[in-house]
Amino acid sequence: MELAYLSLGSNVEPVRNLSSALAALSARFGDVRVSAAYRFPAVGFDGADFVNLAAIIEADLPAAALNDWLHALEDRHGRRRDVPRFSDRTLDIDIVLYGSQVLQGDGNLQVPRDELRHAFVLRPLAEIAPEAVVPTKRQSLRQLWLQHPDHGRKFQRVALD
């Protein structure tokens, strides 16, 4: 078993898609620790704002198998992979940290994720796992968030109920 730190986002019916994804994670993995959901502007393209949050699960799968399971969950939520990488998303879930492992696998499996540089990933993760250490940086999520240029900026919370 390994703690998997996930980043979830959506800008297409985000409340419905994120709520449904969290229910699926809970049904499969049990207890899910979840951050607040926040509204962030789209990155890399001109699109609707995203709603992003973080979740931590206790994974009973190796990282590559978990990544495949998460891709299947995205697909069940209408995720399109035939469009540009930076585009609207019904559901996007990434493994940001997987315990203290550093992984580079097939497809998009990269742990820790480079997206930790973005507030939409770092802010929610630092909220629920401030002491978790990013192995490639040897700093905690709290430390990285305190150093982030957007630290101190207020982000709108979004209710998922």
Notes on the structure:
It is a single chain. With 161 residues, the protein is an alpha+beta fold. The chain has one domain (2-158): Alpha-Beta Plaits (2-Layer Sandwich), CATH 3.30.70.560. 29% of the residues lie in helices and 26% in strands. Strands 1, 2, 3, 4, 5 and 10 form a 6-stranded antiparallel sheet that branches. Strand 8 (133-134) and strand 9 (139-140) form a beta hairpin. The longest helix is centred in the N-terminal third of the chain and has 16 residues, at 14-29.
- Largest sheet entry: 6 strands, antiparallel
Which architecture per CATH?
A: 2-Layer Sandwich
Q: CATH superfamily, please?
A: 7,8-Dihydro-6-hydroxymethylpterin-pyrophosphokinase HPPK
Element string (H = helix, E = strand): EHEEEHEEEHEEHE
On the 0-100 scale, what is the average pLDDT? 93
**How many discrete structural domains?**
1
Briefly note the CATH topology name: Alpha-Beta Plaits
Separation, N- and C-terminal Cα atoms: 29 Å
Number of strands: 10
Q: Determine the number of helices (DSSP H or I, runs of at least 4 residues).
A: 4
Q: Could you name the CATH class?
A: Alpha Beta
Strand-pairing-aware structural class:
alpha+beta
Q: Looking at the structure, what is the overall shape?
A: globular
Strand proportion: 25-35%
* Helix content percent band: 25-40%
Which regions contain 5 or more consecutive residues with pLDDT less than 50? none
The value of Rg in angstroms is 15 Å
